[in-house]
Amino acid sequence: MTKLLGVIAIAAVPLALAPAQAAKHAAGGCSSANLEHTETAIENMPDGDSKTVAQKEIAAAQDSLLNGKMGVCGAHLNKAMRASMGK
C-alpha cells in the first residue's frame, strides 16, 4: 500500500505542474509583439498552402486575444509560427 501511494504521489507532481507551465507559456507567448512578429514573417512567405494555414492561425490567434482566451491564442500563435517557418 505504501508503494502504491508513493507511485501515485510521483505521478501527481507532473500533473499538478502542467497547468501552471501552460499558463506561463500562454501568457508569454500570446502578445501583440509576438503577433506582429509572426504576421511579418507570414507576409514575407511565398504563396502556398503553408502561408494559407499560417494566415488562418494568426487570424484565430487575434480573435482569441481579443476575447481574452490567452491559452487558445497561444496555441494558434504557436501553430502560425510553425507554419511560417515551414515546419
Task: Summarize this structure briefly.
This protein has about 90 residues and is mostly helical. It has helices spanning about 1-30, 30-45, 50-65, 70-85.
Overview of this structure, please?
The chain has 87 residues and is mainly α. Helix content is 84%, strand content 0%. It contains four helices and no strands. It has helices at 2-29, 32-43, 49-66, 70-84. The longest helix is centred in the first third of the chain and has 28 residues, at 2-29. The chain is globular. It starts with a helix and ends with a helix.
Anisotropy-based shape: globular
Count up the helices: 4
Q: Helix amount, in percent?
A: over 70%
- Poorly predicted ranges (pLDDT <50, ≥5 residues)? 15-27
Euclidean distance between termini CA atoms: 47 Å
Strand percentage lies at under 5%
SSE pattern:
HHHH
Number of strands: 0
Q: Biggest sheet, in brief?
A: none
Structural class label: mainly alpha
How large is the radius of gyration? 18 Å
Mean pLDDT: 76
List keywords for this structure.
mainly alpha; 84% helix; 87 residues
Per-chain topology:
Layout: H1 2-29, H2 32-43, H3 49-66, H4 70-84
